[in-house]
Design goal:
The protein is of the alpha+beta class and 51 residues long. The chain contains two helices and two strands.
Amino acid sequence: MVVYSITQTYLEQEEAAATKSELIRGEIVAMAGATISHARISMDIDNSLSM
């Protein structure tokens, strides 16, 4: 008998999924898409840390 953990199930689903999700306390939850402002701030932080 093969028993899959929720983590294994999550990883398999995430690999094949068109949208991203996250595992929170054993529950798979859809992630919201990032806004342009979020992406810009993330890039600015990354550039600052890379210097």
